[in-house]
């Protein structure tokens, strides 16, 4: 059975190579771009970058100038070729790269672009600068992979900076294309966060979900509450090895981002057309806050601790007025830092035991005429939602926010499978899909016996690639509530940036195609072929990706 299967895979691979070859003879466009564009048609000849190449933009507006500078820097870093940026001058074909915002042409959506490569010039047209940005990302991938170098002396002498002639029309399937990072279980430096954002932007993803607060650490400076960074950001010890080990390292661990650093990251992301969605967890996952400010908890005199192990804890914010004031103060500073329409307020894994036993929580249930603690959670979240809405923001919450009644405007992030997402979409609420089975990049991606320690699960690259964000239960009308999907990178078992990259890549690459490319255009074997070129790009970018799918069939080294 196994041999037959391998034979089938081998023969499919051979067919696909053969098809690629025969297509090449008929001038197929280079199949290397990920995510795969909607349509590509090969032309005649090729464009060659030379010392006369300029970047010409249609108007000297900020967004376009920034983009032109971004492209110019990218080219210079790998080639030492200077490509001056000029406004206008589109008439003479002069080996230039034209970036044109064109509102008159009909594009499929705001993020669409058209890319035309001809021997005498390259043109990227789009309705918005975001579309142009995606055209630039495609152009980057059409250039030799060595374009990723940031030191031209490392580029082999024989690399030719050419791009085969091609006509591309392209646009994303989903508007929310996200990747998440938990910086609370383990903390990662700003430079790494920037690299992470760079990589997701290269894959045409547009949301970075920054999980900033947890039981094990609070990672964002809040000026009004200094103890959040003096106390909540630090734990005394960390579990070693797997959950069941019971061993601790007894080393103080922590860190946080200053507001200045956060501004720097948000600005860095903006230039790459990525919105940073911050998450501030409530009412559960709040041990670290309560360790610094026990008055916001329900148990008087409890010695709350920043947690040193993983899992779900009973500590929970008490629904008192002073707690709401605290959370509103925190969110006010968060809104000043993050322009994102969405603020993620968590809402997951909030055991109700402390509320059941608290006189204060029970009195709120009575006062508000609530049925039980689930309705109390719903009251809690709805109150926060009202506050954020009144400032022009929207909440996203994990699917537990459905329990006890969904806050009126909330977007649901469905993680315990797709059920929560389906239920919310049926109620006409927006949904972002992140089901554990396919979108949890903390799961194993190959045989656990030969893999570095992970939380559990099994999500190989192929499963991610085959993920379909719109469940068949959501027909026509309701499907539009699925805004997109996201990959989640929880870091209980990721202590280093190398490990994060190992777990996130190449699974994030596969997800990018799920989110961008029309489902009918996807093809696993063909993707695998394109991935081989892509790996070379990631090598140059020094991404520590998992290489199970590199050059050979998994398990057949
Ligand atoms: C569940 S997903 C969690 C996280 C853990 C993750 C580990 C979600 C909303 N909560 O707190 O890190 O599982 O896979």
Topology summary:
Blueprint: H1 2-25, E1 39-48, E2 55-57, H2 62-79, E3 85-87, E4 96-101, E5 113-118, E6 121-126, H3 129-142, E7 162-170, E8 176-182, H4 190-202, E9 207-211, E10 213-214, E11 217-218, H5 227-230, E12 234-235, E13 239-240, E14 247-248, E15 253-254, H6 259-271, E16 275-282, H7 287-292, H8 321-337, E17 342-346, H9 353-356, H10 359-367, H11 373-389, E18 394-398, E19 411-414, H12 419-426, E20 431-433, H13 436-439, H14 461-465, H15 476-479, E21 482-487, H16 497-504, H17 507-516, H18 524-540
Parallel strand pairs: 2-3, 2-4, 4-6, 8-9, 8-21, 9-16, 16-17, 17-18, 18-19, 19-20, 20-21
Antiparallel strand pairs: 1-7, 5-6, 5-7, 10-11, 12-15, 13-14
Helix pairs in contact: 2-3, 4-6, 8-11
User: How many helix segments?
Assistant: 18
Helix percent band: 25-40%
Structural class: alpha/beta
What is the rounded distance between the termini?
19 Å
Kindly report the CATH topology of the largest domain.
TIM Barrel
Low-confidence stretches: 1-26
Distinct compounds present: ligand TNX
Q: Write down the overall geometry.
A: globular
User: Looking at this structure, what is the CATH superfamily of the largest domain?
Assistant: Glycosidases
Rg on CA atoms, Å: 25 Å
The strand order across the widest sheet is 8-9-16-17-18-19-20-21
- Mean pLDDT, to the nearest integer, reads 93
């Amino acid at each position: 059975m196994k041999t037959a299967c391998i034979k089938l895979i081998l023969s499919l691979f051979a067919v696909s190579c053969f098809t690629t070859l025969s297509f090449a003879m008929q001038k197929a466009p280079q199949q290397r771009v990920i995510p795969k564009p909607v349509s590509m048609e090969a032309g005649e000849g090729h464009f060659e970058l030379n010392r006369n190449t300029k970047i010409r933009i249609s108007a000297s507006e900020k967004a376009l100038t920034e983009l032109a500078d971004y492209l110019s820097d990218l080219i210079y870093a790998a080639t030492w070729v200077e490509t001056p940026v000029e406004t206008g001058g589109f008439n003479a074909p002069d080996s230039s790269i034209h970036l044109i915002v064109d509102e008159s042409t009909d594009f499929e959506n705001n993020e669409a672009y058209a890319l035309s490569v001809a021997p005498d010039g390259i043109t990227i047209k789009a309705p918005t600068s975001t579309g142009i940005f995606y055209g630039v990302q495609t152009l980057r991938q059409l250039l030799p992979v060595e374009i990723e170098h940031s030191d031209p002396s490392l580029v082999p002498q024989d690399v030719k900076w050419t791009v085969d002639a091609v006509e591309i029309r392209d646009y994303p399937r989903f508007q929310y294309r996200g990747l998440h990072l938990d910086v609370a279980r383990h903390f990662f430096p700003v430079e790494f966060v920037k690299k992470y954002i760079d990589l997701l932007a290269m894959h045409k993803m547009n949301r970075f979900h920054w999980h900033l607060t947890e039981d094990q650490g609070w990672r964002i400076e809040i000026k009004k509450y200094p103890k959040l960074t003096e106390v909540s950001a630090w734990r005394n010890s960390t579990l070693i090895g797997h959950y069941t080990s019971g061993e601790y390292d007894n080393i103080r661990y922590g860190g946080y981002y200053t507001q200045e650093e956060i501004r720097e990251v948000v600005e860095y992301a903006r230039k790459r057309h990525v919105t940073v969605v911050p998450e501030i967890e409530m009412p559960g996952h709040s041990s670290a806050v309560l360790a610094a400010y026990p008055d916001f908890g329900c148990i008087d005199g409890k010695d709350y601790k920043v947690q040193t192990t993983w899992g779900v804890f009973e500590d929970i914010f008490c629904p008192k007025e002073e707690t709401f004031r605290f959370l509103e103060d925190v969110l006010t500073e968060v809104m000043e830092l993050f322009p994102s329409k969405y603020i993620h307020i968590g809402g997951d894994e909030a055991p109700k035991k402390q509320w059941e036993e608290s006189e204060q929580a029970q009195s709120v249930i009575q006062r508000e005429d609530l049925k039980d603690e689930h309705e109390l959670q719903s009251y809690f979240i709805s109150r926060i939602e009202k506050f954020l809405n009144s400032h022009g923001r929207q909440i996203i919450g994990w699917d537990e926010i459905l329990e006890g009644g969904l806050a009126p405007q909330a977007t649901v992030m469905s993680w315990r499978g797709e059920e929560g997402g389906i239920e919310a979409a049926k109620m006409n609420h927006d949904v972002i899909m992140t089901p554990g089975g396919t979108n949890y990049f903390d799961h194993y991606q190959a045989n656990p016996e030969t893999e570095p320690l992970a939380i559990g699960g099994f999500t190989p690259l192929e499963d991610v690639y085959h993920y379909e964000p719109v469940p068949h239960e959501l027909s026509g009308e309701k499907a539009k509530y699925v805004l997109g999907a996201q990959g989640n990178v929880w870091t209980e078992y990721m202590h280093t940036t190398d490990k994060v990259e190992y777990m996130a890549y190449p699974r994030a690459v596969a997800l990018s195609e799920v989110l961008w490319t029309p489902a009918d255009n996807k093809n696993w074997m063909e993707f695998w072929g394109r991935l081989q070129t892509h790996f070379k790009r990631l090598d140059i970018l020094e991404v520590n990706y998992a290489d199970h799918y590199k050059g050979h069939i998994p398990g057949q080294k």
